[in-house]
Specification:
elongated, mainly beta, 62 residues, three-stranded antiparallel beta sheet, 1 helix
Length: 62
């Protein structure tokens, strides 16, 4: 695998182990990072990710 040069602002897709908290009425699932005290994130289930663009909600959107 060749070394990739990363620049500030590059977009990367990160896959982390998460724990489902609950599923919201709009179909999103509320998850938290396993073992990490990070804010909760609302993500679509993995099955939907392949064909769906998503973004992390801003504080204003929550």
């Amino acid at each position: 695998m060749e070394q990739t040069k990363w620049n500030p602002g590059d977009r990367v897709q990160v896959v982390l182990e998460t724990q489902v908290i609950c599923q919201l009425p709009n179909g999103l699932i509320l998850v938290r990072m396993v073992g990490m005290p990070l804010p909760y994130s609302a993500l679509k289930p993995l099955a939907d990710l392949e064909t769906t663009d998503f973004h992390s909600p801003n504080k204003d959107e929550l």
